[in-house]
Amino acid sequence: MSEQKAVASKPKASRQAFGEVLAELGAKHTDLVVLDADLAKSTKSELFAKKFPERFFEMGIAEQNMVGVAAGLGLAGKNAFCCSFACFVAGRFETIKISVAYSGGNVKIVGTHAGVGIGPDGYSQMGLEDLALMRTLPTMEVYQPADELETRQIVEYLATHRGAAYLRLTRQDLTPVHGPGYEFAPGKLDVLAEGKDVAILATGGPTFHAVDARKQLAAAGIDAAVINVPSIKPFDREGIAAWAKKVPLFVSVEDHNVLGGMGGAVAEVLAEVAGARARLHRHGIPDVFGESGEPEDLYRKFKLDADGIVAVVRERLGR
Amino acid sequence: MDRQATIATLAATCTRLRRDILEMITHAGSGHPGGSLSAVDLIETLYSKHLRQGAQRANDPARDRFVLSKGHGVPALYAVLAHHGYFSRDLLPTLRKLGSPLQGHPVVGTVPGIEACTGSLGQGLSVAVGMALGARLDGNGARIWCMMGDGEIQEGQVWEAMMSASKYRLDNLVAIVDSNKAQIDGLVKDVMPLESIEEKARSFGWLTTRIDGHHYGHILDAYEWAEKPEGAPKLIVADTIKGKGVSFMESELVKWHGVATNKEQLEKALAELDPEVLGS
């Protein structure tokens, strides 16, 4: 993981970064197998399929069987990456619960096109509950990268990790928030910028918007920390507890229902921290259905872009 | 051992296993006797004559594997595994008790020989397909066996798994349907009719056979057929009797799906299950 990659500083979708790095890792990790359910062109697992056709399994539009077959491959000693839209793969929750998590299968569930960021396809294609579901499974690790470099490093980690994990990726491009020296660490917060008035905790798609929001807030005299949360489970309880004593306000930002996602994880820890100063505002999709629209219009509507995050923070601070 | 001797041994062993099953379930105070008794002849014949595994090879990556997808029938599997030395028979009375490795439905890692967590019906065949694909990638010659209940194949995932096994021409995969004709809410034909299971499976690209699942000669022949690679997955539909071996269960198929015998009923059942008599 310390191996530094030359990463272009231009925006890239985390699904694209995932597909590229998985195809690279296939040569070194001969136990890697990949399954998809008729969305390989979209999840970018096709990049692996082209290089390693004997280790790629097209399972058709039958996600629960795909999940179970991945579990069997994992039990037979493989490391199975099982890909679809976050919405469809997480929808096979009970198969993930029993065949994957409970069986101790070596399976990586990959959910792409997460959140309202999928855009015009509308709510039926939007994974907005997947973090809440996956967090409840014992042994299941849950990760959501914020840019290309972090995606690469998380996929590299998962390529050698034994056990079950969920990886949540975007359809839309993500502007890099990390320099080339970044090192992802499972179970740790990633502090992108220090600040004392508020800590914005962001994960996945909206993270780079939170970085932009910090600049606007600074212009308004508000000193905001921006903390990227790539590791939803294991979750950095100590990190949250420490920040809860440093700042008066947390604003969690995610393209997911506010119930049970990253903000929910923060709330659970915060409620148990003795001497916490911070109050929490959970910002995300406010327990409503998504809808069709261009991704940027949806991010504007749900206040997940920089202007929206600024507005939410200022309203909450009353400044 | 000649065939007649093999069959006599199987008959005697399975009678003892039936006694174990009923004692375990009675002691637990809950469990599924009917579907355990319908499956035990099929499971014991597999472990004693066809599964290339054994207690000493329970973690060998190249072993044959058996996935009990109808996880509620696990008392039969526990009895068979204990009989073959996978773990001590002393554990059998701990079935379903707090802290026991013998969970109410199979759990990987609790005792050697459990290959997948099952019990949420309809999931095991998919896992077996994955194991068969893995064995093929490794070229290790392992064969994967999966047992389902007939009621269980009402689950749609089973048919997704059937399609995928057929697509990948998994001739190292064998599915067995323990067709005991009854499920919790009633007879399978009333709850949700399935027949013809064989025609459905054949239309999904499987090779099939149908046998009497309590006739050891039929079972041995079917397993021999199933082990011949013929470019397609194979399905054995085994006609069985829920509660087989216990007359008061055989006469009330549905009742004994998920009800434990009490002590009095156990005594009555054991009186009908004399291994010396049936084995002779």
TrEMBL record, chain A:
What cofactors are annotated for this protein?
Answer: thiamine diphosphate
Q: Which InterPro entries match?
A: PDH/Transketolase, THDP-binding, Transketo_C/PFOR_II, Transketolase-like_Pyr-bd, Transketolase_C
Is the keyword Oxidoreductase in the record?
Answer: no
Entry's Gene3D superfamilies? 3.40.50.920, 3.40.50.970
Note the superkingdom of the native organism: Bacteria
Q: Where is the Transketolase-like pyrimidine-binding domain?
A: 12-177
Q: Which UniProt keywords apply?
A: Thiamine pyrophosphate
Which residues fall in a coiled-coil region?
none
**Do you know which Pfam families this protein is assigned to?**
Transket_pyr, Transketolase_C
- Kindly give the PANTHER family that the UniProt entry links to this protein: PYRUVATE DEHYDROGENASE E1 COMPONENT (PTHR43825), TRANSKETOLASE-LIKE PYRIMIDINE-BINDING DOMAIN-CONTAINING PROTEIN (PTHR43825:SF1)
Protein family: Belongs to the transketolase family.
In its UniProt entry, what is this protein called?
Transketolase
Q: Which organism is it from?
A: Sandaracinus amylolyticus
From TrEMBL, chain B:
Which is an annotated GO molecular function term of this record?
transferase activity
**What are the record keywords, sorted?**
Metal-binding, Thiamine pyrophosphate, Transferase
Q: Name the cofactor(s) required for activity, per the record.
A: thiamine diphosphate
The protein's matches in PROSITE patterns, at most eight in alphabetical order, are given as: TRANSKETOLASE_1 (PS00801)
Q: Which InterPro entries did the record assign?
A: THDP-binding (IPR029061), Transketolase_CS (IPR049557), Transketolase_N (IPR005474)
* Signal peptide interval: none
Transmembrane segment boundaries? none
Q: What residues does the Transketolase N-terminal domain cover?
A: 20-268
Family affiliation: Belongs to the transketolase family.
- This chain belongs to the protein called Transketolase
What is the scientific name of the source organism?
Answer: Sandaracinus amylolyticus
